[in-house]
Automatic annotation (TrEMBL):
The active site is at residues 88, 237. This is Patatin. PANTHER family: OS08G0376550 PROTEIN (PTHR32176:SF103), XYLOSE ISOMERASE (PTHR32176). A motif (GXSXG) lies at residues 86-90. Belongs to the patatin family. It comes from Coffea canephora. Residues 44-250 form the PNPLA domain. GO terms for molecular function: monoacylglycerol lipase activity; phospholipase activity.
Length: 431
């Protein structure tokens, strides 16, 4: 490898203002080396939320830009995280960040996610503007999915082609729900090694995790086992299982640790202190909730559609995401490593911004502004007594992401350095 310039990076907890040390780095486009060559387990998780996926898209664009300032323009998020997890729209983002192009590089740079949503969402969720569009929407939701999903399916198949789960540039975790088995299916790079039937086309996985009830049709497909037998999948949106997949991703890693996976040789099965976790929400409408006296009068139609939302789906996915965040906050705070868990979420969106499918140009541009404003908001953490998210004295989300970028960069260099030393001792002729 070729020596690059030395730069300054933080040496202690990444969420704190710390001393700086000079580290010599190496230029490399290779994938992230195993955790056993480093100090941390790095996880990125992205919630479901339809068109609101543009919000974490803005956040990720900022993080990748900070990594590029440290490590050069070739830096991509897949080269810094052991696991990238995503549900529903978050699953699509996961695929964009980890699916390889013809040069074995990520299909999308993080900065391009925003433009993907601006361009593709109006085609995935075409809007009717005539006088009776609201009535038409209600009728559709009563008789079938609001959208046929044809454009989404064809677009994913075109962009992802024959790429399978095992082809991703880092480990991924994408939940979906099998309606025939009435249980979640976790498409995981780790689980795939033990259950080959999970090595599905990435396009099928993305279609499955985004098949939101009432919005998009369920998805059926098959995979083949090595013995020639087939496994059938009957899938709907992963948000029915885990709209916030952070906990699922951590469980997958913990299982690998307990199985003795050598990639995690330095981590104990009950030790979360080496974990560095970035969990991104897609915004919630807590500020614009419903009054129980009004909800008490709702029938089926009101639960299915209310002010451009589907309350029965939105409330369920929001609640499951909050439970995951509360559980993770409890774990990290109890183990006194709360600085290692960063949850970025906007609980103040309302009106059209809360819709998962109102893909007008105006609404999408406003969602971009939500993401940009979220960067300027203070870092928040869940109060374990009240369950509410409260600002803490850790600066803004933007500042926290800069510290995270420095920690991720340092971890990557450590792994490359240790891996190079180990490799050189075994293969002296390659030095």
């Amino acid at each position: 490898m070729e020596l690059e310039n030395t730069i300054n990076t933080p040496t202690s907890s990444w969420m704190q203002h710390t001393k700086v040390s000079t580290i010599t780095i190496y230029k490399s486009k290779k994938a992230l080396k195993p955790q056993s060559d480093g100090n941390c387990v790095t996880i990125l998780s992205i919630d479901g939320g339809g068109i609101r996926g543009i919000i974490p898209g803005v956040i990720l664009g900022y993080l990748e830009t900070e990594l590029q300032k440290l490590d050069g323009s070739d830096a991509r998020l897949a080269g810094y995280f052991d696991v990238i997890a995503g549900t529903s729209t978050g699953g699509l983002v996961t695929a964009m960040l980890t699916a390889p192009n013809e040069n074995k590089r990520p299909l999308y740079a993080a900065k391009d996610i925003k433009d993907f949503y601006l361009e593709e969402c109006p085609k995935i969720f075409p809007q009717s503007n005539h006088l009776f569009s609201c009535i038409e929407r209600v009728v559709k939701s009563m008789t079938g999915p609001t959208y046929d999903g044809k454009y989404l399916h064809s677009m994913l198949r075109e962009k992802l082609g024959q790429t399978r789960l095992h082809d991703t540039l880092t480990n991924v975790v994408i939940p979906a729900f099998d309606v025939k088995l009435s249980q979640p299916t976790i498409f995981s790079s780790y689980a795939m090694k033990h259950f080959s039937s999970l090595d599905a086309l990435l396009s099928d996985i993305c279609i499955s995790t985004s098949a939101a009830p009432t919005y998009l049709p369920a998805h059926k497909f098959e995979t083949k086992e090595p013995d020639g037998s087939t496994r059938e999948f009957n899938m709907i949106d992963g948000g029915m299982a885990a709209n916030n997949p952070t906990l699922v991703a951590m469980a997958q890693v913990t299982r690998e640790i307990s199985r003795g996976n050598p990639d995690f040789a330095s981590v104990g099965s009950s030790d979360y202190s080496p974990f560095i976790v970035l969990s991104l929400g897609t915004g919630t409408t807590k500020a614009g909730g419903f009054d129980a006296e009004d909800v008490a009068k709702w029938g089926l139609l009101s639960w299915l559609t209310n002010a451009n939302t589907t309350p029965i789906i939105d409330i369920y996915t929001q609640a499951s995401g909050d439970i995951a965040d509360l559980h993770l906050s409890t774990i990290f705070q109890t183990m006194q490593c709360e600085e290692n868990y960063l949850r970025i979420q906007d609980d103040t969106i309302s009106g059209d911004l809360g819709s998962v499918d109102l893909a007008t140009k105006e609404n999408l541009k406003n969602l971009v502004k939500v993401g940009e404003n979220l960067l300027k908001k203070p870092v928040s953490r869940t109060n374990l007594k009240t369950g509410a998210s409260e600002p803490v004295n850790r600066g803004t989300n933007e500042e926290a992401l800069k510290r995270l970028a420095a920690a991720l960069s340092e971890e990557r260099r450590l792994r490359l350095s240790n891996n190079s030393k180990n490799f050189s001792s075994l293969n002296p002729q390659r030095c």
